[in-house]
Automatic annotation (TrEMBL):
SUPFAM superfamilies: Actin-like ATPase domain
Pfam families documented for this protein: ROK
Protein's UniProt name: Polyphosphate glucokinase
Native species: Amycolatopsis coloradensis
TM annotation in the entry: none
Membership in a protein family: Belongs to the ROK (NagC/XylR) family.
Keywords: Kinase, Transferase
Length: 253
């Protein structure tokens, strides 16, 4: 029988969020649980938080977990905005042991890939045609690229060089807050980033997500690029939803 509920956890640079998910509708069931990302955000410290969130929810089934990292076959190969001790960590084994699950009950994904998978499945159908790039603006910038709805995993387009800088160091949502930029000032930086990216991959559609998508009316209309821009329909919950679906269906990259 196809699972109707799943559980996803989205690990970010500032917060770790988890929730039960209705897999038929692609929506959270009840409130999400959020705990600040520990400092330092070592694998063991983060695993403790993931166990706490899973325990609070009373969930004993498969768990999908996202990381702001390149993830291949359950192993983290980079560490963006989390402790560098993650590099080379078998995250599948770590979480399976900490949560008392089998390795097959843990699905590890890049955070933006998970969010993109959720948007492709439950968002605007237009995203399933042609080349779609989802970008999450948060502590950093995550990217997920799809060709006719099929994911190209582990793209790292938040780190392309724009005007001599790593893109996310200038255009992430955290930079807006840290430098106290107005929405128009920040939108100018996002616009510059998107214009460089669209000249590299020539997408048919951008989807913008992350926490700042809740205030999309303040900055998305200010963008002036040739590629159409949609706001993520699941906003900042997309990573949780995508992770839950991946765990229920045994998807991992």
């Amino acid at each position: 029988m196809e699972a109707t509920r799943g559980f996803g956890i989205d690990i970010g640079g500032s917060g770790i969020k988890g929730a039960l998910v209705d897999l038929a509708e692609g929506q959270l069931i009840g409130d999400r649980i959020r705990i600040d990302t520990p400092k330092p955000s070592t694998p063991e410290a983060v695993a403790d938080v993931v166990a706490e969130i899973t325990g609070q929810a009373g969930w004993d089934g498969p768990v999908g977990v996202t990381l702001p990292a390149v993830v291949k076959k359950g192993v983290a190969h980079t560490a963006a905005n989390i402790d560098r001790k993650w590099i080379g960590t078998d995250a599948d084994a770590l979480f399976a042991k900490r949560l008392g699950r089998g390795v097959d009950d843990i699905a590890m994904l890049n955070d933006a890939d998970a969010a993109g998978m959720a948007e492709i499945r439950w968002g605007d159908p237009i995203a399933r045609r042609g080349v779609t790039a989802l970008l999450t603006f948060g502590t950093g910038i995550g990217s997920a690229v799809f060709q006719d709805g099929k994911l190209v995993p582990n793209t790292e387009f938040g780190h392309i060089e724009v005007d001599g800088f790593d893109a996310e160091k200038k255009a992430a949502a955290s930079v807006k807050d840290n430098e106290e930029l107005s929405y128009p000032e920040w939108a100018e930086r996002v616009n510059r980033y998107l214009s460089v990216l669209e000249n590299l991959i020539w997408p048919d559609l951008f989807i913008v997500g992350g926490g700042v998508s809740k205030k999309s009316h303040k900055w998305v209309p200010l963008l002036d690029i040739r590629t159409p821009v949609l706001v993520a329909s699941l906003q900042n919950n997309a990573g949780i939803v995508g992770a839950a679906a991946a765990a229920a269906e045994g998807i991992e990259h």
